[in-house]
Amino acid sequence: MIKLDRATKYVRMKGINKAIIDDVSFVIPRGKSLALLGRNGAGKSTLLQLIAGTLDLDRGRIIREGKISWPLGFQGSFQSKLTGEQNVRFVARIYGADTEELVSYVAEFAELGPFFRAPVSTYSSGMKARLAFGISMGIRFDYYLVDEITAVGDSNFKKKSQRTFKDRLKDSDVIMVSHSAATLRSYCDSGIVLENGKLTYYDALEDAIAVHESNMKRHYA
């Protein structure tokens, strides 16, 4: 379970503070794979970072029960001066994973070759994404947070990533941000719509998509 208790987060936009989430009390249920929908700039990525604990609230609290991943697709947490392997070792210590087992898994899964032992500062964005995805798949989480990425690389790597991720979701939940409704339908069964700093849960994914699309039409009307 993930519980937001009177949670508020402001961001600075055009010289004013905007509430990304505004005094929200909300329970994200266990056993659901959730699509997180909202307009561009609504704060979906920020909300994922708050849930992950990589950003702090301005007010309120988030209660987390279970092991939660960092947002896949967000590589800002890597130490660029360290090698890929050194970053893996650091993450293993943070999450209490078997270090050598995780290093071996990520080295094989991410397919970075000699770059695995090169500084992350030399990586392309795709290589960083592969490293992040490999680490995420190497650690068992109760909740996977996904921000616009489920697979990277060539077609064979994408197929392998999709198979592995779907296997993980047999025992875990996902909270996913994507502009692709087809991607959301592949992985999610329910939805949350973020609109004007508030969250609304829909047990049926199609209901959430319909509300989001209606919000978008009003926005551009």
Architecture overview:
The strands form 2 sheets. Strands 5-6-7-3-8-9 form a 6-stranded mixed β-sheet, with helices on both faces. It has a 3-stranded antiparallel β-sheet with strand order 2-1-4. Strand 1 (2-13) and strand 2 (16-28) form a beta hairpin. The protein has helices at residues 44-52, 84-95, 99-110, 125-138, 155-168, 181-187, 205-220; strands spanning 2-13, 16-28, 34-38, 59-64, 68-72, 143-147, 173-177, 190-195, 198-202. The longest helix is centred in the C-terminal third of the chain and has 16 residues, at 205-220. It is built from 7 helices and 9 strands, in the order E-E-E-H-E-E-H-H-H-E-H-E-H-E-E-H. It is α/β, with parallel strands linked by helices and 221 residues long.
Task: List descriptors.
six-stranded mixed sheet; three-stranded antiparallel sheet; alpha/beta; 221 residues; 9 strands; globular; 28% strand; 38% helix
Q: Gist?
A:
The protein is of the alpha/beta class. Helices cover 38% and strands 28% of the residues. It has helices at 44-52, 84-95, 99-110, 125-138, 155-168, 181-187, 205-220, and strands at 2-13, 16-28, 34-38, 59-64, 68-72, 143-147, 173-177, 190-195, 198-202.
